[in-house]
């Protein structure tokens, strides 16, 4: 490919992403499927931004960009991103499809972005550096553990509970429900970094869900 055609190719991809994610949808529900050629995986890079004059806290208000490994919403979760200024995100799929979806309130803008196809043998070392050692969960409520492994193609993540495999997929999230008896349960996530096993042990920080005072208690105070 000549230098001229390479620049044209990159420019066209940039325009496609910008057009898809800049246009408004009536209900602010925007999704996009990125597809590359067979025998390749998707690599995407982007920045996520929200105007500073908009009120609210994006993460607390459940405003986010969700990215999945596959062709639709049922694909394994590769990442959920929120915040007013999220920079320099690089994410990779395991195959030729990647699904992007904004939350319904969609007030984000994606900028300085592009995606491209990488051949499956163009591997990127797997990194568990962003996995938090201590993770907060709610007692007796559905909670999520996160293992944002980075690599190319997207690595399979083996989740274990007390050494027993609970989940084996490219999903960075494990959903659990912790009871009082399970406070000291040991969790871990493992990846095969092209022949080398990497593991991150995760300790639970268990919190009880806030209980609002009853009307009777409020009146007494």
TrEMBL record:
Residues 1-22 form the signal peptide. Keywords: Disulfide bond, Signal. Transmembrane segments: none annotated. Residues 1-127 form the CUB domain. The keyword Cytoplasm does not apply. Residues 104-203 form the Ig-like domain. It comes from the Eukaryota. The keyword Signal applies. InterPro entries: CUB_dom, Ig-like_dom, Ig-like_dom_sf, Ig-like_fold, Sperma_CUB_dom_sf. This is Ig-like domain-containing protein.
């Amino acid at each position: 490919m000549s230098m001229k055609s390479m620049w044209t190719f990159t420019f066209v991809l940039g325009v496609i992403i910008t057009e898809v994610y800049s246009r408004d949808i009536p209900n602010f529900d925007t999704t996009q499927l990125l597809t590359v050629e067979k025998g390749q995986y998707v690599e995407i890079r982007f920045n996520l931004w929200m105007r500073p004059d908009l009120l609210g806290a994006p993460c607390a208000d459940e405003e986010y960009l969700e990215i999945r490994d596959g062709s639709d919403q049922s694909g394994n979760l590769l990442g959920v991103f929120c915040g007013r200024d999220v920079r320099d995100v690089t994410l990779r799929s395991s195959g030729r499809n990647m699904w992007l979806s904004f939350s319904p309130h969609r007030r984000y803008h994606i900028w300085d972005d592009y995606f491209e196809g990488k051949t499956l043998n163009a591997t990127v070392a797997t990194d568990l550096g962003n996995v938090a050692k201590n993770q907060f969960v709610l007692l007796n409520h559905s909670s999520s553990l996160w293992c944002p492994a980075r690599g190319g193609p997207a690595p399979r993540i083996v989740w274990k509970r007390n050494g027993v495999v609970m989940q084996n997929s490219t999903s960075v999230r494990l959903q659990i429900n912790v009871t009082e008896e399970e406070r000291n349960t040991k969790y871990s996530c493992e990846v095969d970094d092209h022949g080398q096993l990497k593991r991150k042990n995760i300790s639970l920080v268990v919190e009880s869900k806030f209980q609002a005072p009853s009307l009777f208690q409020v009146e007494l105070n």
